Every structure is written in C-alpha cells, then in structure tokens.
Amino acid sequence: MSSINPRWTVSADFKNLQNQLHRLFEPFGRVASDEDLVSGTWVPPVDVAETQEHILVRAEVPGMRQEDIQIEFENGLLTLRGERKLDKSDTGVTYHRVERTYGNFSRSFTLPRTVDPEKISAAYRDGVLEVTVPKKEEAKPKQIRIEVK
Q1: Would you say 105 and 46 are in contact if contact means Cβ atoms under 8 Å apart?
Q2: How far is residue 47's CA from residue 60's CA, in Å, rounded to a whole number?
Q3: Residues pairing with 60 in the sheet
Q4: Long-range contacts of 67-71 (CB under 8 A, 24+ apart)
Q5: Is 33 helix (H, G, I), strand (E, B) or coil?
Q6: pTM (predicted TM-score)
Q7: Bridge-partner residues for 46, per DSSP?
Q8: pLDDT tens, residue order, the chain (149 aa)
C-alpha cells in the first residue's frame, strides 16, 4: 500500500492551470520594460451620441499631439487611430511605476448610410478628440405643419 494520501496529490491538469494563471497575472506583478511600454496597445474610452443633426464621437486621448491622431471614413466605417508614446528624452530617469498606457490604438465605428462623409469635422481640446459627423439633409426629421380648415 502506498503511503501517499490521494487527496493531496496534485494532478497535472491543476499544475497546468496554475502555470497558465501565473503567466496571465505576471505582467501585473513586475516592472514594465521599455519594450512593454512602447509596443503595447491601448483602448481610449469613447462616447458615441446622436442628435437630429449629427453623430458625435468623443474619445479621451490625453497627452497626445494632434498630429499623432488619424481619422478615416471609408465605406460607412469611421476609424480613429493613433499612438501615444512614452517620452524617453528623460535621461537618467528610472520609472518605479508606470500606470498610464502607451502604444498604438485603433477604434472603428460603423455609421449609418444617412451620414454625410463630405462634412465630417474634428476638434481636439483638453485631451478629448471630438468628431462630428453630420447627417444628410434627407435623413433629418422634417416638421409637417397641419393647417386647420
């Protein structure tokens, strides 16, 4: 008879699960390297709203320069792209914690066919990118006046 208690034997499946969990949570327990900071991707939060006149897309992209953001509209798809870079000009600086996210981002939104792509405009202020997508005239609701006879 074996002296090993079967209740305390760790199966290979459990060890495999444990190893996978360690790999999953490892990035949160270590200091990020320069490569992690530059090559990572992030997802800026976005609000999409609609009025009778237009669709508004607002994205939080603080710390970015206007020239680092691209906006494209093709086949009904509005795409926001950009890259937030870590400033490496600080020579002699040792980071002890990096919580802000750096790297490339891309967000795409399918818009209805009722928008007018020729009149899309964008503004960037206080770290918020606002894209205004006007609706075509025929898509806007019309008031119909009722005459009393």
Answers
A1: no
A2: 9
A3: 128
A4: 69/124, 69/129, 71/120, 71/122, 71/131
A5: coil
A6: 0.65
A7: 59
A8: 555 555 555 567 766 777 677 666 655 554 444 433 334 478 899 999 999 899 999 999 998 999 999 999 999 999 999 998 887 777 788 888 888 888 899 999 999 999 999 999 999 999 999 999 999 887 666 777 888 87
